[in-house]
Amino acid sequence: MNTLTLTQDFPGPGAVDRKPPAALAEPVTDSIKDKTMQKSSAPAVGETATPFAETLRNLFRSALPPVLGLFLLIGIWHVATQSGGAIPSPGTVWDAAVVLFSDPFYNNGPNDQGIGWNVLSSLQRVGIGFGIAALVGIPLGFMIGRFKFLSDMLNPIISLLRPVSPLAWLPIGLLVFKKADPAATWTIFICSIWPMIINTAVGVQRVPQDYLNVARVLALSEWKVITKILFPAVLPYMLTGIRLSIGTAWLVIVAAEMLTGGVGIGFWVWDEWNNLKVEHIIIAIFIIGIVGLILEQALILLARKLTKEAA
Amino acid sequence: MEKFVQIEKVGQTFDTKKGKFIALRDIDLSLKKGEFVALIGHSGCGKSTLLNLIAGLTKPTTGALICDGREIAGPGPERAVVFQNHSLLPWLTCFENIYLAVERVFSGKEGKAKLKARTQAAIEMVGLAHAAYKYPHEISGGMKQRVGIARALSMEPKVLLMDEPFGALDALTRAKLQDELMKICDKTQSTVVMVTHDVDEAVLLSDRIVMMTNGPAATIGEILDVNLPRPRDRLVLAHDPAYIDCRARVLEFLYEKQAHVEKMAA
Q: Which of A133, A144, B102, B178 is 20 to 30 A from B35 (CA-CA)?
């Protein structure tokens, strides 16, 4: 992260005259930096003869292994299902997928909706549960990290509850909310809150003492300490917590929906099992994987953008 | 005012796992206004501990510290600190780092334009106007330390506390910053306490050198008056008998009277 931003172009009006005219030592270090910058960017821009061919080759080189892996997986799957059996072959699944995705948003009542609706309602539950968990967990993490008494008080409770499978909380949710839908959201809330509390608290505890000393010498108000020092310092930790939470939440929603029913990708998997449409279950596995991958990558992208701005 | 900062019978004891550790004992020292005092001693002698006490970052176990007639109860902007590792906030530009300090001290009395002008003046004083909108990771170590000094001075502190401010810099940059610091102190008439382990730096910059005995239970060993006229020029001083004498006396103290440092450390 840091090395990335280090070699960036310098923004702002200072960029025009970079070299201090009077300084003795600075131009030396600057020119060293320049050299390393050129070196590191040399292979990408270097040969001006065929830059297009170069990028094409790079693309090919980076894309080859994953594509090969995917083909291998499908190949093994194809061979394994050749002799018949309960598991459908890749071809059968593909055909089923084409039919399924031709109309993803049909609606024939609560128990028979298109795959699009199922995915969206799962995402909605994750979004709500995760959102509330962030609203509660991040401030709580800040307070735990900032006040030792609170941390000593709550840490044993967190350590006790964190290893519990979130599904164990589902009956409590059903009892309290009397409905399946909020109970599933409640489960997501429970499973997403721990990584956010813990990572935020660790981040606050790891804010360098130097920065806090600066705050103390300047006698900054608590608000300034939070906005100017704690928040930017904790942001990378917080984003890690968020990423872990989203990952877990997406894992848990499938299981939770299997139990609660309604509309959702987890319920859909169970429903298709009852209908013995195994090819749909395999499609669902791929969809769940792809959505999880997109969520993860989106958050990594967000984290990179935010920390780059903050760094 | 004759005694601007008073340190009276100050002792500092830390509670460690092995029991009580006496870091400092019986420190008596007073500083005049506008005086430049260097604290020198072997590592582990409690120089920084004493500086932190004056800053108010830690509280003395015994004794009292008084600054401008008031007891030092905690850290505050009237005793600005230049930290050894510059301690700039990496997510703020140089300008914003200084502005944070200026805003804290003067925002009650002055408008935004005036605050910005103050920040600009501070950054120009250390010769970094061209780097004002760069982030700390985009500038060299010497430049960062200059921003740290500008941040401290921008608060117009009663006392400027410097904890080995040039320790991490190469010799050329260090010499340049020492010269700059002398000029700035001449202009601002600041009261300065600087922790250092560099004998030349101590003699060149200070009016008095406080030499500390080895820890644990370190205290003030000797105090040397440096009676060299200002402004000082390092090239001229190199052949000045008074300078050479001061230098020799500090070296004597460090390497003869307090030479058992290796034994202590082991």
A: B102
B108 in contact with A, Cβ within 8 Å: no
Tell me how far apart the alpha carbons of residues A218 and B155 are, in angstroms, rounded to a whole number. Answer: 9
Segment A222-273, tens digit of pLDDT: 888 888 998 999 999 999 999 999 999 999 999 999 998 888 899 999 998 9
Q: Which of A24, A30, A210 sits opposite B172 (nearest CB)?
A: A24
Domain enclosing residue B141, as ranges: 79-156
pLDDT of A166-212, one tens digit each? 999 999 999 999 988 899 999 999 999 999 999 999 999 999 888 99
Strands (E), chain B: 5-16, 19-31, 36-40, 62-67, 70-71, 79-82, 159-163, 191-196, 208-212, 220-225
> How far A89 CA sits from the closest chain B CA (Å)?
54
Nearest CA in chain B to A213: B57
Distance from CA of A93 to the nearest CA of B (A): 51
Q: How high is the ipTM of this complex?
A: 0.82
CATH number where B235 lies? 3.40.50.300
**Residue after which a domain boundary falls, among B156, B188, B214:** B156
